[in-house]
Write a structure and sequence with these properties.
Distance between the termini: 16 Å
Order of helices and strands: EHEHEHEHEEHEHEHEH
Radius of gyration: 16 Å
Strand content: 15-25%
Strand order of the largest sheet: 5-4-3-2-1-9-8-7-6
Structural class: alpha/beta
Low-confidence stretches: none
CATH architecture: Alpha-Beta Barrel
Shape: globular
Number of strands: 9
């Protein structure tokens, strides 16, 4: 089963990357990003992409420039997530045949992202936008636009976001933060997947 969940491993170390990724994949989350402000992110991405080829889509978050897109591609990454809507980053991502998830808040940013080829919209920070804000923006977006709530969306409110029209989620500290053991990440991943599956079943 493919779930519209992106695991955000901000702060993961190269030593943790493989065991943490393994437990997240086993729980049922198959898209994983390593933010570029993590320790040695490109080394982690390269190891993850090689080890889990065919099992996962591995990429980077907090990508702010076209040059960074190329670095992630060279490391074997296949998806790019950003906190902002930068057409240069989106165009570079699509030129490399990678998935693009730029950060947006406003209708202007949403349409700019879509016009430049974004595969999905990362509504960030979701805690400020809220389900009602997303619902209002979706009224003017093309039907079927993939929308991910990130930064304030999690197991406790999946249902409210899905009811508002969100199609997926990026999960950060609710899943991983520096200092957690692999067992703790495994437990969190399993609970997140269980809550996601229950919420998606309940909303149709």
């Amino acid at each position: 089963m493919s779930r519209n969940l992106i695991a955000i491993l901000r702060g993961v170390t190269t030593q943790e990357a493989l065991p943490v990724t393994e437990c997240i994949l086993n729980a049922g989350i198959t898209r994983i990003e390593v933010p570029l402000n993590s320790p040695e992110p490109l080394k982690s991405i390269e190891a993850m992409a090689k080890t889990f080829a065919g099992r996962a889509e591995i990429g980077a978050g907090t990508v702010l420039s076209a040059d960074q897109v190329l670095q992630v591609r060279a490391a074997g990454g296949t998806l790019i997530v950003s906190p902002d809507c930068n057409p240069d980053v989106i165009l570079a991502t699509k030129a490399e045949d990678m998935l693009s998830f730029p950060g947006v808040m406003t209708p202007s940013e949403c349409f700019t992202a879509l016009r430049n080829g974004a595969d999905g919209l990362k509504f960030f920070p979701a805690s400020l936008i809220g389900p009602d804000g997303l619902k209002a923006v979706l009224a003017v977006l093309p039907k079927g636009t993939p929308t991910y709530a990130v930064g304030g969306a999690g197991p406790d409110n999946f249902g409210a976001w899905l009811a508002a029209g969100a199609t997926g989620f990026g999960i950060g500290t609710a899943l991983f933060k520096p200092g957690l053991t692999v067992a703790e990440v495994k437990d969190r991943a399993e609970r997140i997947v269980e809550a996601y599956d229950a919420a998606t079943s309940a909303t149709g």
